[in-house]
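Known limitations

Structure tokens in this collection are predictions and should be treated as such. Users comparing against experimental data should check residue numbering before alignment. To illustrate the layout, the record for Imidazole glycerol phosphate synthase subunit HisH is reproduced below. The input appears on top and the generated tokens appear beneath it.
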Amino acid sequence: MIAIVDYGMGNLYSVEAGLRRAGASSKMVQTAADIDSADKVVFPGDGHFLACMNALNKRGLRDAVLRAAAKKPFFGICVGMQVLYESSEEAPDTPGLAVLPGHIRHLPEVAGKIPHMGWNTVQHTRAHPMLNGVPENSRFYFIHSYYAEPNACTIGIAEYSTAMTAIAEHCNVWATQFHPEKSGRWGAQLLKNFVAA
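Generated tokens:
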């Protein structure tokens, strides 16, 4: 069973629909016990870094999310990816979960409108099972104003004002800045790869 963490901060129904199209059985969960008993965990997020961290702490789910990220197939989406990093310029006094190394920065405005919203291509930096069946320069749907700087965990890069991490992995943790559940064929393929992992 795949648990979709419901802490009030994500596109839960679209994620659930995306997983269903990928052939997975999933359910939205609101308790640490349900996260602990799941086989895999999807961690969505929308909105503000601080609001996501506050909601996670208020609902008593932070430690369960960290336990899942330490040992289970785990997929962070959008702000659900960003809070996996150590910190964010969006909320400099609020630590992230530090599952992934690095920091979240504000997108430079030199290249146009912020937020970055719409379709963008992603270049692979190295092979990974997450990318099986996903061609180089596939397009995915983004909506965000902050980004993770590319580092050793980055396996996909997009360009908008600057090079940014579009896809990251670390051991059992997969994460995307874009919304795979809204990204058509190739987003569906990423979800299928996660279901099969």
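For this record: Helices lie at 12-21, 32-37, 49-58, 62-71, 79-82, 184-196. The chain has one domain: 2-196. Please report discrepancies through the issue tracker.
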